[in-house]
Amino acid sequence: MSDIYDVGDKLVLRAEMRDSNGDLAVGGTVTCLVKHPDGTVEALSGIQNPSTGIYEKEFVFDDDGDYWVRWSSAGSNVYNAIEKKYPVRTRRVPDPS
């Protein structure tokens, strides 16, 4: 079963970029696009590179529906494109105040 997130959840989006041998590699130019439930597409800035081949970015889900995230990279020996769906719902039971 896939994970389901709540509106307001913060997640670290993460991608691994690999070379033709399957080894983690520097991705060259790495981009992360988020398609929101309303169809708008956002290019995320401030992508972190904590170690070779690993790219991360914090993101907060601000609406319910399906988010699609696409990571892509183009470098001298690396080309990857990774897409993943993140279903987000409105909480039915609120936190107590």
Report the structural category: mainly beta
Number of folding domains?
Answer: 1
Annotated CATH topology: Immunoglobulin-like
Q: What would you give as the CATH superfamily?
A: Immunoglobulins
Shape: elongated
- Major sheet details: 5 strands, mixed
Describe the structure.
This protein is mostly beta strands. The chain has one domain: Immunoglobulins (Immunoglobulin-like, Sandwich), CATH 2.60.40. The protein is built from no helices and eight strands. The chain is elongated. The termini are far apart.
What are the defining features of this structure?
97 residues, 5-stranded mixed β-sheet, mainly beta, Immunoglobulin-like, 0% helix
Task: Lay out the secondary structure.
Elements: E1 5-6, E2 10-16, E3 29-35, E4 41-43, E5 48-51, E6 54-60, E7 65-74, E8 79-89
Parallel strand pairs: 1-8
Antiparallel strand pairs: 2-6, 3-4, 3-7, 5-6, 7-8
In short:
The protein is mostly beta strands.
